[in-house]
């Protein structure tokens, strides 16, 4: 599934981004799964195409 998020990093890299993603996803307390339906879904599909 796709996920939407935002963060800022100083001197980030692909490796650090990957490690951050793994750390965040390791604990389900860190994120929320939300099903988007209807008009909102179409808006996000355009924004993240």
What does it look like?
- This protein has a domain at 14-47.
- It is 43% helix and 0% strand.
- It contains two helices and no strands.
- The chain has helices spanning 14-25, 39-47.
Overview features:
single chain; 49 residues; mainly alpha; 2 helices; flat
Write the layout of secondary structure elements.
Layout: H1 14-25, H2 39-47
Task: Provide a count of the helices.
Answer: 2
Distance between the termini: 15 Å
Strand percentage: under 5%
Structural class: mainly alpha
N to C succession of SSEs: HH
Compact description:
The protein is mainly alpha-helical and 49 residues long. The protein is built from 2 helices and no strands. The protein has a domain of 34 residues.
């Amino acid at each position: 599934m796709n996920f939407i998020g935002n963060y800022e990093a100083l001197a980030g890299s692909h490796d650090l981004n990957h490690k951050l993603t793994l750390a965040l996803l390791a604990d389900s307390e860190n994120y929320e799964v939300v099903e988007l339906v209807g008009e909102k879904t179409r808006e996000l599909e355009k924004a993240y195409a």
